[in-house]
């Protein structure tokens, strides 16, 4: 997302994943020919990260990650940037609904965002 500010050097991102994401979150990784095609990190009912490399998008990896998370918990929530229309469309197609919008002043990127939720049918 070229419109997002670059906030951390790669070393800071690695430290975050080494010290918080990998030890604390449910992380699932998809590989194609030994190369990471995408990953999802879930912490409780929060989808914290969902990334699919551009060359692997629209091949069902994101849908498989979402299906896995839905099979594990009856409620999910996530934040998506307001400018990321493709992600909003993807999540909506998988049953997520917008429940909150912010101006971004409380997120690290200072970029408007949307909280979306999914609930299993009772």
Automatic annotation (TrEMBL):
PANTHER family for the chain: ACETYLTRANSFERASE (PTHR43420), PEPTIDYL-LYSINE N-ACETYLTRANSFERASE YIAC (PTHR43420:SF51)
Keyword Repeat: no
GO molecular function: acyltransferase activity, transferring groups other than amino-acyl groups
InterPro entries: Acyl_CoA_acyltransferase, GNAT_dom, YpeA/RimI_acetyltransf
Pfam short name (any one): Acetyltransf_7
Keyword annotations: Acyltransferase, Transferase
Annotated organism of origin: Gymnodinialimonas phycosphaerae
Record domain N-acetyltransferase: where: 1-121
UniProt protein name: GNAT family N-acetyltransferase
């Amino acid at each position: 997302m070229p419109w997002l500010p670059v906030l951390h050097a790669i070393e800071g991102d690695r430290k975050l994943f080494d010290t918080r994401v990998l030890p604390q979150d449910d992380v699932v990784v998809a590989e194609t020919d030994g190369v990471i095609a995408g990953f999802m990190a879930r912490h409780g009912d929060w989808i914290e990260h969902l990334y699919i490399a551009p060359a692997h998008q629209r091949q069902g990896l994101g849908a498989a990650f979402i299906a896995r998370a839905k099979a594990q918990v009856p409620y999910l929530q996530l934040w998506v940037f307001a400018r990321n229309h493709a992600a909003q469309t993807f999540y909506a197609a998988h049953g997520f609904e917008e429940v909150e919008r912010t101006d971004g002043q409380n997120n690290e990127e200072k970029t408007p965002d949307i909280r979306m939720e999914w609930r299993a049918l009772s």
